[in-house]
Structure formats: C-alpha cells, structure tokens
Amino acid sequence: MSRPKLEVADIFRRHGAAWRAANKAHLSLGQRRVMTAIEVCRTADLGGHVERCEDCAHTRIAYNSCRNRHCPKCQWPAAAAWLAAREAELLPVPYFHIVFTLPAAISAIAYQNKPKVYGLLFTAAAAVLSAIAADPKHLGASIGVTAVLHTWGQNLQHHPHVHCIVPGGGILLLPVGRVIHRRQAHCARPRRPSPSAKPP
User: Fold this and answer.
1) Which bin fits 140, alpha (ψ -120 to 50), beta or left (φ > 0)?
2) How far apart are the C-alpha atoms of 193 and 172, rounded to whole Å?
3) How far is CA 160 from CA 137, 146, 149, in A?
C-alpha cells in the first residue's frame, strides 16, 4: 500500500504547534498527548530498527509506531478488520443511516460529563430504534444497530451525535427465528411512534 500524499501527521507537524497555542484554553492534556503521538509516529523521535534483505543486502530504517488508538496510521489494520467483521454480520436487507443529535443545551452539559451523557445518548438511540422496529406498523421485529459516536461537527465545534446504521429487517421472536424485511424506504422515515411503542 503506497503512502498517501498528505497524512494527518503532516498537518499536525506543520500546523499543530500554532493551533495548540491558539486553542490552549480548550485543549485537555489527553488531547495534547494524542496530537503529539500522531506527530512523532514512525519518526526518529520514537526510535526504530534496521531491516536488511538476506538476498540482496538492501537495508532500510523502519521507525517505530506510536500505537495510539487515535492514530489513523497505526489503527488502519484494526479498522479494516472491524469493517470486515461488521460486513460478515450484515443481513440480506436494505440498511438506513439515522443520526441522533444532542440539543445545544445538553451538549454543553455533555462536555463536562462525557461518559454519563454519551452513554445515555447511546441508550436512548437504541431504545427508540428498537421500539419503533418492534411496532407492527413499522417492522414488527427485533433489530440490531451499529452506532458510532461523533463528538465534533464539520465546523470543528463540539457537537455530540450518534450515527446509526439500521437494518430494514429483523428477527421475529418465534420458535424458529427467521429474518423478515421490508424493501420500502418508508420503513425508516421519521414518524411519531404509536403509544404502544414503548422502549424495552
């Protein structure tokens, strides 16, 4: 795999110091450490080793990785494996992209109470989707959901929201489970849940 022309590390090395200085009041120690880890990943700052070909005696220096979980260079193999595992779980049904966003007032509270509020956001999203899917007027089945938390918007402002990949089909709780699905796109259109569609 060839190296891309521009990496996140390149941007951090070129502009990171100035950006941190301009935003020092808003950066946590953890965020600073992540930026530093990405900047020095696979550079002489982390040390390295010499690789030598036994056939032609060609040598090259290979620098060590930062292994930070936020580093796109280090985590690419793990991300690829995660995607492959999720693809193996797909049902033979259409899928829909649904986003749950925190109101601005709660977003400010979330900034100081991340584990609690983000956990509640995941729980609420899953409960709403499960309740609507269980309603016979919509799908009438039990579903699973893949949800990913994003804490920043496109304008790089704090904007917590959860992206959900929702199947247009699910499992009927019968003695022998079977997959059901509806191909019509209206299954995932916003509608007011019926009074009987209560979260589990």
Assistant:
1) left
2) 20
3) 31, 17, 7
Q: What is the pLDDT of residues 182-197, one digit of tens each?
A: 544 344 444 454 444 4
Task: Return d(Cα 34, Cα 23) in angstroms, integer.
Answer: 15
Quick one: pLDDT at residue 126? Answer: 96
Report how far apart the first and last C-alpha atoms of the chain are (Å, whole number): 46
Q: What is the pLDDT of residues 112-135, one digit of tens each?
A: 899 999 999 999 999 999 999 999
Cβ atoms within 10 Å of 121's Cβ, excluding its own: 20
How many whole angstroms separate alpha carbon 68 and alpha carbon 123?
A: 28
* Pairing relationship of beta strands 158-167 and 146-152 according to DSSP bridges: antiparallel
Kind of pairing between the strands at 59-63 and 158-167: unpaired
Whether residue 188 contacts residue 182, with contact meaning beta carbons closer than 8 Å, is answered with no
Beta-strand pair 48-52/158-167: unpaired
pLDDT (tens digit per residue) in 51-88: 888 889 899 988 899 989 889 888 888 888 888 998 88
